[in-house]
Amino acid sequence: MDPNQHVAVQLDRVARTYGHGSTEVTALREVSVAFRRGTFTAVMGPSGSGKSTLLQCAAGLDRPDSGQVIVDGVELGPLSEAKLTALRRERVGFVFQAFNLLSALSAEQNVGLPLRLAGRRPAAAQVRESLAQVGLAERGRHLPSQLSGGQQQRVAIARALITKPRVLFADEPTGALDSSSGREVLRLLRTLVDQQGQSTIMVTHDPVAAAYADTVLFLADGRVVDELTRPSAQAIAERMTRLETAA
Length: 247
Ligand SMILES: Nc1ncnc2c1ncn2[C@@H]1O[C@H](COP(=O)(O)OP(=O)(O)OP(=O)(O)O)[C@@H](O)[C@H]1O
What we know:
alpha/beta; Rossmann fold; 8 helices; 36% helix; binds adenosine-5'-triphosphate
């Protein structure tokens, strides 16, 4: 039996340094971590601890200087840019703090975009199914400007899900939302994990957001320094305070 079959994304001794000489900054120091399939992981840590770099390397958006990244059983290092682009398009989904919807396109057209970019014509039923998954079946014809911030982020999630990605990456998905819209988005992410086994990895600054995850990974100065399972928001906030005062 393949011991890695339960792993969605694996990092082995991943290191990433930016700049050279006096401007050199080490963002990740030989990070090794496995994200299990069908689970929701939050990544937390003080500002500059390497969270976004970890997410970018894990999602194949950035290449580490050394170490291995394996997504859905595929080692990314040896892949050509074209193969890496295809893997990102087919196997991973992204959601960012900025919703990045195209303002002239309806919700439906935005959701169908990843398929169009892959040269496929989105089937209306597929687009409807994706919008229904995020509770917006009735809003397909609306423009982004006719939707609330929380609804726009849900459209962005529907767009990320239309290719049925093996892993969903979210970088501060609630960062631009008020707390009630943010909770709506977090409940949706939690439901996708519980009902569809959607492997999800989310970077956040917010202990309340991280408390929706199964596992919370803590980074400090480019290293994984702790991992908590199903912690409360309070336990996460306390751990963060200790890291921030130690920094
Ligand atoms: N493109 C880049 N060029 C130079 N330095 C970078 C670049 N991206 C990140 N860094 C540096 O690498 C370190 C880690 O950055 P990263 O964005 O991963 O941290 P973070 O934990 O996500 O921070 P924040 O919470 O503030 O978003 C920081 O010191 C940052 O300044």
